[in-house]
Design a protein that fits this description.
The chain is α+β, with helices and mostly antiparallel strands. The protein has a single domain, classed as Cytochrome p450 (Orthogonal Bundle). It is about 45% helix and about 10% strand. It has 14 helices and ten strands. It has helices spanning about 20-30, 50-55, 85-100, 105-125, 135-140, 140-150, 155-165, 175-200, 205-210, 220-250, 255-260, 265-275, 310-315, 350-365, and strands at about 5-10, 30-35, 40-45, 130, 285-290, 295, 300, 305-310, 370, 395. The chain has a five-stranded mixed sheet with strand order 1-2-3-8-5, with helices on one face. The protein has a three-stranded antiparallel sheet with strand order 4-10-9. The chain has a two-stranded antiparallel ribbon with strand order 6-7. α4 crosses α6 (about 140-150) and α10 (about 220-250) packs across α11 (about 255-260). The protein starts with 6 loop residues before the first strand and ends with a strand. The relative contact order is 0.19. This is Cytochrome P450. Belongs to the cytochrome P450 family. It comes from Kribbella yunnanensis.
Length: about 400
């Protein structure tokens, strides 16, 4: 494609479960395509699985870049994290977090997640139908879990949601609104870190305060604040959205729900398949390329900002047979929804655990669950870097 033919990005999905029509065409005809971002800047959009896997797995390229010629997503200034993003410092930081997201720790946490899910179903049923599954279940569950891990008050969850949305804003908020909200968020988390220094406790932040990394170094206050903010955002925003999207996928054609009711052992593979099938995954991962890169689908020249569409990669027919079909028993399932390489999602085991618990509890408690509106009427999240649904009305 030439610069004249640059297409506007992001691409809009058809509805909650149907992907943008352009994905298949771009994968087949133009796997490295010029796109025009909301800022007006130009970037290269990658849509094929092999191209994206190679690029995001390459440790040479930063997830975020302050290079002056990097494309801006929007005209608004982007929030930056002081957490080291590359090199050994970043890997040491990841290793410090890893102990909190091991299989053993998730198994120990699971009964508490199940108990909270049961309580939320009770409250949703007591409120009557139709109910908004996102507001009554999909939002409070992951917020409670991440607050529990960080040792922050669950009662502040509405504030966290607003701060998170402003952090992820592309067009929903003004610069002054973003700056004010992020200043509040930073002040809040700095106060929390200071309180933890005085009385660390047994939560994740308390552990990071009192434990040195492999090099014998402790995280600075700025790094602790950024860690707390980052985990609060990532720990509830993406999982909240995925719960709503997962349920929309499974209930849009109730034969999928009936299949799970008949065989609950499919819950684990069903979670992985809905992660792969997600047509509304959000903006995608960005990579700034400061040297030429040869990909199977084409060349990225130095100075290019690449947008990696994980949603499109997960629909790549060359990797996933019958990629357009939701196959709840698909195995193996090598989707890239959590990324790959040094920047893959550190909390993916927690997200998987939460999504599995959601399915198990809802299948057991509300077997007659159904969407309250046609799937095409589910309103998408707009103006944010993440994809999701504003509401998921359900009946039972």
């Amino acid at each position: 494609m030439t610069e004249r033919e640059a297409i506007d990005y992001p691409l809009a999905p058809i509805d909650a479960i149907e992907p943008p029509t352009e994905w298949a065409e771009l994968r087949e005809q133009c796997p490295v395509a010029y796109v025009r971002l909301p800022s007006g800047d130009q970037a290269a959009l990658l849509t094929r699985y092999d191209d994206i896997r190679q690029l995001i797995g390459d440790p040479r390229f930063a997830r975020n870049s302050s290079e002056k010629d990097a494309a801006r997503i929007s005209m608004l200034s982007q929030q930056e994290s002081p957490i080291p993003r590359l090199g050994e410092g970043h890997q040491r930081w990841r290793r410090m977090l890893t102990k909190w997201f091991t299989t053993k720790r998730m198994a120990a946490l699971r009964p508490q997640i199940e108990a909270m899910a049961e309580q939320l179903v009770d409250e949703m049923v007591a409120g009557g139908q139709p109910a908004d599954l996102r507001a009554g279940f999909g939002f409070p569950l992951p917020v409670w879990v991440i607050c529990h891990l960080l040792g922050v008050p669950n009662e502040d969850r509405d504030r966290f949601s607003h701060w998170s949305d402003t952090f992820l804003s592309v067009s929903r908020y003004s610069q002054s609104e973003i700056d004010a909200a992020q200043a509040e968020f930073t002040t809040y988390m700095a106060g929390h870190v200071a309180a933890k220094r005085a009385a660390p406790g047994e939560d994740l932040l308390g552990d990071l305060i009192t434990r040195a990394d492999a090099a014998g170094e402790y995280l600075s206050d700025d790094a602790l604040v950024a860690t707390g903010k980052g985990l609060l955002i990532a720990g509830h925003e993406t999982t909240t959205n995925m719960i709503g999207k997962m349920m929309a996928m499974l209930l849009a054609d109730r034969s999928h729900w009936e299949q799970l009711l008949a065989d609950p052992s499919l819950v684990r593979t069903a979670v992985e398949e809905t992660l792969r099938y997600d047509a509304n995954a959000g903006f995608g991962l960005t990579r700034y390329v400061d040297e030429d890169v040869e990909l199977p689908g084409g060349t990225l020249t130095a100075g290019t900002t690449a947008i990696c569409s994980l949603g499109s990669a997960n629909r790549d027919e060359s990797v996933f047979p019958d990629a357009a079909e939701l196959d709840l028993s698909r195995s193996p399932n090598v989707h890239m929804s959590f990324g790959v390489g040094p920047h893959s999602c550190v909390g993916q085991s927690l997200a998987r655990t939460e999504l599995q618990v959601v399915l198990e509890v809802l299948l057991r408690r509300l077997p007659t669950l159904a969407l309250g509106v046609p799937v095409g009427e589910l309103p998408p999240v707009e103006g944010l870097l993440v994809g999701g649904l504003q509401k998921v009305p359900v009946v039972w």
